[in-house]
Design brief:
disordered N terminus, two-stranded antiparallel sheet, single chain, 11-stranded mixed sheet, alpha+beta
Length: 531
């Protein structure tokens, strides 16, 4: 695949390629180091598991397959006879590649963890590039069946069946350990897997930066800041070219048809790891965080972490789940196709990980083609194409940090009532006095609960946004409230706009107020209400 083709596809999808600024990440890291002085070895955020899907645009739907067969002079009823020889060629190619690498194809007749089998092979062969192992398994696949339409004409209809699948595990010099899952039946919908931590480890070796990687977590990196800079520069164009190259290597017979795969994101996991110097320190922090997450985080909080608005139109599953595993404990919060989880690895790494199974859950500002052909820039659903990975990284990173900041504000024993006391006092500006805020006052409590809504976490808020949730307030009253919030340092103005967002002080104070209300005041009042 040439550079011109990659560039044109990238431009076609019109994605924005930008990340949180380096200053934002440094600020987050400094906040953690201030909360846990001398305890943190380093902080790193990068993709973990990424599962991509490759489809052939011309034949991945029934109408496209019908058109292809007709152009080839093949009757629709002969679809099976056309596909059978291709399946045989794929099987012969897999056997040839395995023999060339000096390995045998292992058929998996029952469900096993393939990663464990691969690690056993790697322990013997080492990490040098090349084919590691090949597995085969009988699994579900997409297919088509012949049927008669209402007008009496014959056509193809999507169907599902089972066919032999090959899992080609290989060690790539650039991307580390990957696998390509190839079905032996048309329309040949393939899957590709890579791990961001393995990819980053290879780049650290190339730059001669010392590290210690255990499983998929870094326990030590000689230069954490440089590692983060490298992790932020995943080149999707290179990944696209390499995936096309791998498909051409493992499925050479498909090249005869001139087909080129379209790659989309099936699943992506983005992890933020806080690595501690000692296990004892993390143990003292982790248990309170888990308890607080169980008792305090509700669905509306999860929506806030993800920058979403929870309303009556939301129909998907949402909730929390706490698991005790052999590796330790884990708390997982789900909202539709996205989940946030927290767990510790090896009692040294505190991991926050956001997983998305449908990229359209998120929105971003991009170019959209309307029905009349005009192109405009607006907020729209994120595309599933692989060129959405950079902007998706920004959304998932922000979710991890909102989640971590929320829990740390509740669990940090060094934080007392001083921030709350500060905002309850009146302030002076231009010879005018502005009152403080009272968290026991219903109007003030409603205001701060509104400011914590998920949709304001990314875009901020304006006067008109607050009017939707505080209908009893006029525009002038809300303008004075916003001015009062700014003078108390609770909100900050977004540059070159009329929008505002909560400051660090505002986020911490409102979170502490929630802690007082949900964990102290209401439970204590309940004791008196039910003697």
């Amino acid at each position: 695949m040439g550079q011109e083709q990659v560039t044109s596809e990238r431009q076609q999808y019109g994605e924005e390629f930008h990340h949180h600024s380096r200053a934002d990440k440094n600020r987050w890291r400094e906040e953690l180091e201030q909360r846990f002085p001398g305890a943190i070895a380093g902080v790193l955020s990068c993709y973990d598991r990424v599962l991509l899907q490759g489809t052939l645009p011309g034949v991945c739907f029934a109408g496209g397959m019908e058109k292809f067969l007709r152009t080839q002079g093949i009757l629709l009823k002969d679809y099976t006879q056309w596909a059978l020889p291709l399946a045989g060629q794929l099987k012969a190619c897999a056997a040839s590649l395995a023999a060339e690498a000096g390995i045998s194809i292992e058929f998996l007749c029952k469900k096993v963890r393939k990663e464990n089998l691969v690690q056993e092979v790697l322990a013997q062969r080492g990490n040098h590039p090349g084919l590691v192992c090949v597995f085969s398994a009988l699994e579900r696949c997409d297919t088509y069946r012949l049927h008669k339409n209402r007008d009496g004409r014959w056509g193809l209809r999507p169907d599902s069946g089972k066919c032999l699948h090959y899992y080609f595990y290989f060690m790539d010099p650039r991307w580390g350990l990957c696998f390509l899952r190839v079905p032996t039946w048309a329309p040949f919908r393939v899957q590709f897997y890579l791990n961001g931590h393995n990819w980053l480890a290879g780049l650290l070796e190339r730059e001669k930066i010392g590290y210690r990687l255990l499983d998929n977590a870094f326990l030590h990196i000689a230069d954490w800041q440089r590692a983060q800079e490298i992790a932020d520069r995943m080149r999707i164009e290179e990944l696209h070219r390499d995936m096309d190259r791998w498909v051409a290597y493992f499925c050479p017979m498909l090249a005869a048809f001139g087909w080129r795969y379209h790659w989309s994101v099936n699943q992506a996991e983005y992890a933020t790891d806080v690595t501690f110097h000692s296990q004892k320190t993390l143990e003292s922090i982790y248990d309170p965080l888990i308890r607080l997450a169980i008792h305090t985080i509700r669905v509306e909080h999860v929506a806030t972490f993800l920058g979403k608005k929870l309303n009556t139109n939301f129909q998907n599953e949402a909730g929390n789940r706490f698991d005790v595993r052999l590796q330790g404990t884990r708390i997982k919060h789900r909202m539709g196709p996205v989940s946030i989880q927290m767990y510790d690895k090896f009692r040294l790494v505190l991991r926050m990980e956001t997983t998305v199974n449908d990229l359209t859950f998120f929105q971003h500002y991009r170019e959209v083609e309307q029905r009349d052909g005009q192109r405009v820039r607006k907020w729209a659903e994120m595309k599933k194409n692989i060129y959405s990975l950079p902007i998706l990284q920004e959304r998932l990173l922000a979710a991890n940090w909102r989640y971590l900041q929320f829990l740390c504000a509740l669990a940090d024993p060094t934080v007392d009532l001083r921030p709350l006391h500060r905002i309850t006092q009146p302030v002076q500006s231009s010879q005018r006095s502005y009152r403080g805020f009272n968290f026991f006052l219903a109007d003030d409590r409603s205001l701060f609960e509104t400011l914590l809504r998920g949709e304001f976490a990314i875009r901020g808020f304006a006067n008109k946004d607050l009017r939707r949730y505080l209908p009893g307030k006029s525009s002038g009253q809300l303008s004075r409230l916003i001015k009062c919030l700014r003078l108390h340092g609770m909100v900050q103005k977004i540059p070159r706009s009329y929008r505002y967002r909560l400051s660090s002080l505002g986020l911490g104070a409102t979170t502490l107020a929630c802690k007082l209300k949900d964990l102290v005041i209401l439970p204590e009042l309940a004791k008196f209400a039910h003697p």
